[in-house]
Write a structure and sequence with these properties.
The chain is mainly α. It is built from three helices and two strands. The longest helix is centred in the middle third of the chain and has 16 residues.
């Protein structure tokens, strides 16, 4: 085996550059459909993890959170300003895209909660 030096690096003869990217594997177009086919099994596995007292509490909490998110949706994340109040966003102007007549002026004030 012959070793050559180039630019301070050692490289084996006959071996490509160490930074040569590997070709990407093709992912089947119906992967989402295939994954969804396992939904019932995955829900059963998560429910089993939650119900088994021998499973570590962290795993049970994580599984419970995943089940609740799937069943009821994720909780709403409120956006607040620096003082903790509701965030207020005002859009002053939207510029026209090429080919449109005139820019449209829009004012929007967030509703108070």
């Amino acid at each position: 085996m012959r070793v050559t030096r180039s630019a301070g690096r050692r490289q084996q003869e006959g071996v490509g550059s160490p930074r040569t990217p590997l070709p990407r594997k093709k992912i089947p177009s119906d992967l989402r459909s295939l994954a969804r086919g396992h939904t019932a099994l995955c829900i059963k596995v998560l429910a089993g993890i939650v119900s088994q007292e021998t499973v570590p509490p962290a795993a049970r909490v994580a599984a419970a959170g995943i089940l609740l998110d799937r069943g009821w949706g994720k909780a709403v994340q409120p956006h607040t300003d620096e003082g903790g109040g509701p965030l207020r966003i005002i859009i002053r102007q939207i510029t026209a895209a090429a080919g449109e007549a005139e820019p449209l002026l829009i004012e929007h004030v967030a509703l108070k909660q």
